[in-house]
From TrEMBL:
A biological-process GO annotation: fungal-type cell wall beta-glucan biosynthetic process
Name used for this protein in its record: alpha-glucosidase
Listed Basic and acidic residues bias regions: 205-221
Family: Belongs to the glycosyl hydrolase 31 family.
Positions of the DUF5110 domain: 843-882
Region feature Disordered, mapped onto this chain: 205-240
Pfam families tied to this protein: DUF5110, Gal_mutarotas_2, Glyco_hydro_31_2nd, Glyco_hydro_31_3rd
Species for this entry: Mollisia scopiformis
PANTHER family: ALPHA-GLUCOSIDASE, BCDNA.GH04962
UniProt keyword terms in alphabetical order: Endoplasmic reticulum, Glycoprotein, Glycosidase, Hydrolase, Signal
Organism superkingdom: Eukaryota
CDD domains given in the database record: GH31_GANC_GANAB_alpha, GH31_N
Residue ranges of every copy of the Glycoside hydrolase family 31 TIM barrel domain listed in the record: 400-728
Length: 966
């Protein structure tokens, strides 16, 4: 006992020192070694060993899971039954209830639980107060719809399997094999996804701990180190407790991991499962060199200074994967909130002698394992990526349609030091005519890291500051984190404790740990009462000094705990309902984000605005609540390059409102790096410059010639294209289509482009961008997917022919092409903020394709309220063909449509730019716009530069039907 106390106090001292080091030198203290590798994670290692054993035995391997046919019943689109797991040589079994649901949407869901835990027939160790069941509430946080079961699905069964036909026109099939248990999902009779094909399904059933006699030891000698072995011969060294980095996790419920293998036959590419710093196509994790050694890990953590090209976990988790091959995409969503790992391997299918010379194909074989919870997997059979993303979004919700300001530029650093500092930056941005919409305050604005307060010396007048910003329709975002400073007299912590709304430790007392404020408690947003309380804190009269142009940033919500295991909370902490933190960890950040979102919805009765809340930690469903960013990157070229694959991956995993810190968080970027980063950032759906407290100031006007003007151009480009960006956000908000789109998503049949993750399309605009992410580049190669005409965005130089083209990219130029056949809406008048552009007229850029025609879309609303839900919006298509440009309404009329259209009556089109204008127009001087004539100027082709024309002041309103004849 004495030695334990000494050890524990020594550890406490060490941890405090470690925490202090983190506080003062954050850029150097957290390292890769602070996070587990698979070998250091008990259940990861076990499940990999299990896979190795099964693989080594090959056809001799007897997977110990089988469905008992007599247990099966089919009712209302659901197949229910029991899986028996054989647990020893004597043939003893445990019962695992399984439900396979076939949903109206065409998705299927497989849920496997454990009867004993479900019924609470287990004993917990250490007098634990934890819940006995496997965590079954992930659905209530992640899923918001799409669960209606199919009315048309049908089932047929024989002695060895059950076959369910479901989906559109019954095109999908699930073939459930009883022994060993397995499911093949088919589309048009071809197997697309296989469950338990390799027999790696594994569910750690509950068992009592059998205490063995202590090994004998001679006096004065240490006991021999022995790996504890269970009666079954399994290594039980991490079943009952697990130690890492000096923290011991008491596992009151024993081992409880769940696993299954999922094979995608014939699919060579898999994407998704963010968040990792690596390529868009996922790499193999168990094969030869050059690939990853560890599985992809999802365990939300504060991993700053993260390393590149790594399967290591980061701040957020979306366990949704898409598998893609030529003209077919399918997907799976593993609904589980515990720590998880995913192994990916690829195997060539054996050459089929009957395939008449067609070469062998590759299967991607994945192996998923979570530390606890249910096996709960959704299956999407596509066949397109768009359909898979849409079906996933039907379940977890689509991207929130954001306030328009939030898709403009954000100016942040840790920290703007005083309210005068904020006002000064604001004035200087205006003086230098650099547009921005939002300035941010990091943690130092608070009084002693107490959220909902202002430092009285540095921020004596927040209201004055907010008022100045409002004069240019600008906003402020202030940070509020989930750790609440444990300090006497701080009213928030006192209420938190009094109302008992904080996360508890394993003994049921309020958990205490370290974060920015020092000793802190964590609000438990799994608790409805905590959410209610949190909402009350944001009312204008509670959060004094806040106003309607103040929005919120939620950081550190993994949660980050400086002295916790792997910089987070102990897994045996308890949340509302006595769920262990282990069970809910990956959802934790989303619950905090959700509480803040709810709070922002109605800070004042009757004043309902769309919230804007940025989050660092996220899970499936977070897209409904705001934006995310990729955390603490570095001011280096490789981090600049890493941004796009990460953002693209987030986009196809349903959370496209994403960005990376422009300029890099740690370190001081060279001027060319910073400039290139702004050019890249202009293509992030979430566009924010941010920097660590130890870095030099780098507001765009400080950088000097020629950089400041180039950065300003990049910012103005973003502002000019805001109508196109907002239209893309609208699309994402109705069907989940990513805002920036990877090649495979847009060209699913073009195998040569499946690996591309450094060029992308912006919405449906036909804009094809490849911002420079390498040092000293003078040009970049862009891959053209088809033989359409592509025009340089800035000088209209033409590029044609499928394959690579080289586009010049001196520092002042962003490689950006316009694909023929599109119409791009813009606003060309430079302003201080997007709010000031609200009533500005539009420019339509008509990019003529080979066929001489083009189409495009525009979505507009007030950019801040929810009135669009009652029809207060404009949604139009523009079509140019046979010399006529036509604007057509594609919106649905609602209660507020007419009122909104009235407010937009005077907003018109000021300019049409026609790129690739036909030669015959050379003599043309006007076009017919309704009853009026508008002037046309023609510019002939010059070398490789396309001919173009401009029509000035066609005097047509943006919200009305019209035709312009050329
Ligand atoms: C960590 C965040 O990732 C970073 O962006 C922020 O500046 C610091 N916390 C301080 O709040």
């Amino acid at each position: 006992m004495r030695s334990f106390t000494t050890l524990s106090s020594k550890w406490t001292a060490l941890l405090i020192i470690a925490a202090l080091c983190y506080l003062f030198t954050p850029a150097v203290s957290v390292k890769h070694e602070n996070f587990k590798t698979c070998d250091q994670s008990g259940f990861c290692k076990r499940n990999r060993q299990y896979a190795d054993k099964a693989t080594a035995l090959g056809s001799q391997w007897e997977a110990p899971y089988r469905i008992t046919p007599e247990s099966l019943s089919w009712k209302n689109g659901q197949l229910q039954g029991t899986i028996l797991k054989t647990i020893n040589k004597q043939g003893e079994t445990v019962r695992l209830p399984i439900t396979i649901s076939f949903l109206e949407s065409g998705s299927a869901r497989v849920t496997i639980d454990e009867e004993k835990r479900q019924k609470g027939e287990i004993e917990l160790r250490h007098d634990s107060k934890a819940r006995k069941e496997r965590y079954n509430e992930a659905q209530s946080w992640a899923i918001v719809g799409g669960l209606d079961v199919s009315k048309s699905a049908t089932e047929e069964r024989d002695a060895s399997r059950s076959i369910v036909k479901y989906g559109p026109e019954g095109k999908f099939q699930a073939v459930v094999t009883f022994a060993p248990f397995g499911i093949d999902f088919k589309r048009d009779d071809i197997t697309q996804i296989k469950f338990n094909d390799r027999g790696l399904a594994n569910l750690d059933h509950w068992r009592p701990k059998v205490d063995k006699p202590e090994p004998e030891k001679k006096e004065g000698e240490d006991a021999p180190a022995e790996t504890p072995v269970a009666e079954t011969g399994e290594d039980e060294s991490t079943w009952w407790d697990e130690t890492f980095g000096g923290n011991t996790d008491s596992k009151a419920k024993g081992p409880e991991s769940v696993a299954i293998d999922i094979t995608f036959p014939g699919y060579e590419h898999v994407f998704g499962i963010p968040e990792h710093a690596g390529s868009l196509p996922l790499k193999e994790t168990r094969q030869s060199s050059g690939n990853h050694q560890d599985p992809y890990r999802l365990y939300n953590a504060d991993v700053f200074e993260y390393i590149m090209d790594s399967p290591m976990t980061l701040y957020g988790s979306i366990p949704f994967m898409q598998a893609h091959k030529k003209d077919s995409t399918v997907g799976v969503f593993w609904l589980n909130a515990a720590e998880m790992w995913i192994d990916v391997i690829k195997e060539k299918e054996a050459h089929n002698p009957l395939s008449l010379g067609i070469g062998s194909k590759t299967d991607t074989k994945t192996h998923w394992f979570s530390e606890s919870g249910l096996i709960d997997v959704f299956v999407f059979l596509g066949p397109t990526a768009k359909e898979v993303t849409k079906a996933y979004g039907e379940l977890t919700g689509y991207t929130q349609l954001p306030q328009e300001f939030s898709i403009a530029y954000h100016q942040c650093r840790w920290n703007y030091n005083t309210d005068e500092d904020v006002k000064d930056v604001d004035r200087k941005m205006s003086k230098h005519q650099i547009p921005y919409d939002v300035i941010w305050l990091d943690i130092e604005y608070t009084d002693d890291k107490q959220y909902f307060t202002w430092d009285p010396l540095q921020f004596p007048n927040p209201t004055g500051m907010l008022e100045q910003l409002d004069q240019s329709e600008r906003k402020l975002v202030a940070i509020i984190d989930p750790h609440i400073k444990n300090k006497d007299g701080y009213h928030i912590v006192e209420e938190l404790k009094k109302k008992d709304l904080a996360v508890h430790n394993k003994d049921g007392n309020i958990y205490e740990g370290w974060c920015w404020p020092g000793s802190s408690h964590w609000v438990d947003c799994f608790n409805p009462a905590a959410i209610k309380w949190w909402i009350s804190l944001f009312k204008y009269d509670a959060f004094k000094g806040s106003a309607s142009n103040l929005f919120i940033w939620n950081d550190m919500n993994e949660p980050s705990v400086f002295n916790g295991p792997e910089t987070t909370m102990p897994k045996d902490n308890l949340h509302h309902g006595n769920w262990e933190h282990r069970d809910v960890h990956n959802i934790n950040g989303m619950t905090f984000h959700n509480a803040t979102y709810q709070a922002m919805l109605e800070r004042k009765k009757g004043e309902i605005r769309r919230p804007f809340v940025l989050t660092r930690s996220f899970y499936a469903g977070s897209q409904r609540l705001g934006a995310m960013w990729t955390g603490d990157n570095q001011a280096s070229w490789d981090h600049l390059a890493a941004g796009f694959p990460m953002i693209l991956n987030n986009g196809i995993a349903g959370f496209p409102f994403a960005g990376a810190d422009v300029g890099g968080f740690f370190g001081n970027p060279e001027k060319d790096l910073l400039t290139r980063w702004y050019q890249a950032g202009a293509f992030y759906p979430f566009f924010r410059g941010h920097a660590h407290i130890d870095t030099r100031r780098r507001e765009p006007y400080l950088i000097g010639e020629p950089y400041t003007p180039i950065i300003t151009q990049a910012l103005r480009l973003r502002y000019a294209l805001l109508p196109a960006w907002y239209t893309a956000f609208h699309e994402a908000s109705v069907d989940g289509t990513p805002i920036i789109r990877p090649h495979y998503f847009v060209y699913p049949g073009d195998e040569a482009g499946f690996d591309l993750d450094d060029q992308f399309f912006v919405g449906s605009t036909g804009l094809l961008a490849k911002p420079v992410v390498t040092e000293k580049a003078e040009s970049v190669d862009i891959y053209l997917p088809d033989d359409e005409i592509y025009y340089d965005y800035f000088d209209y130089e033409k590029y044609t022919g499928q394959g690579k083209v080289t586009v010049p990219a001196p520092l002042e130029k962003i490689p950006l092409l316009m694909q023929g056949g599109h119409i791009i809406p813009r606003k060309d008048r430079p302003r201080r903020s997007s709010g000031l552009m609200k009533w500005d007229p539009y420019t339509l850029v008509i990019v003529l394709g080979k066929s001489g025609s083009a189409t495009g879309e525009l979505y507009v609303d007030d950019g801040e309220t929810f009135d669009y839900q009652q029809g207060a919006y404009i949604h139009r298509t523009f079509e140019f063909s046979n010399g006529v440009l036509e604007s057509k309404d594609i919106g649905t009329k609602g209660k507020l449509t007419d009122k909104y259209l009235k407010t937009m009556k005077s907003v018109g089109v000021e300019k049409l730019i026609i790129i690739g204008a036909p030669k015959e127009w050379a003599e043309k001087t006007s076009v017919k716009a309704g009853r009026e004539e508008a002037r046309l100027e023609y510019y002939a082709e010059e070398g490789k530069k396309a001919a173009w024309a401009v029509v000035k002041a066609p005097k047509v309103a943006i919200g009305e039907n019209w035709k312009i004849e050329f």
